[in-house]
Amino acid sequence: MHYTTQLHLPKNISIGDNFFSGERLKLRTFDEWEGVKYTPQIKIGNNVNIQTDCHISAIKSVVIEDNVLIASFVYISDHSHGTCDYSEFFIPPIKRRLYSKGAVCIGKNVWIGEKVTILPGVTVGEGSIIGANSVVTRNIPAYSIACGTPARVIKRLK
Description:
Helices cover 0% and strands 40% of the residues. The chain is an all-beta fold. The protein has a 7-stranded mixed sheet, with no helix packed on it. The termini are far apart.
């Protein structure tokens, strides 16, 4: 099996000590798209383990704090192509301006299950667990278990 990691604009990416990634990890930052400038960063803390086929993308900020475990096929992004305004539907999606509702922050000791999507403007609090196949559209408090589409807290651990 061929091992690859894609780093798009690595100057905007920092990775802490004792980092592990599975195959086909994509870390992508965009400092310009369709003539608009951005100031992106992806910051990954210490002892972070990201499994196979994950994609993390930023035009603003994605921070993953220490001791986070991310299962396979996880997508984390702080942006989308456009704002879903009716006028944009006449522009091909690839040509729409990138738009961010805010930074993404994954707190310390978080476990993110298989095939989770974490959308812009979301904070996942310290010690939380996100169940497999969930779509996280809003903040998850610390020490919570959340799952579903959209993800909702099903149990508080503390």
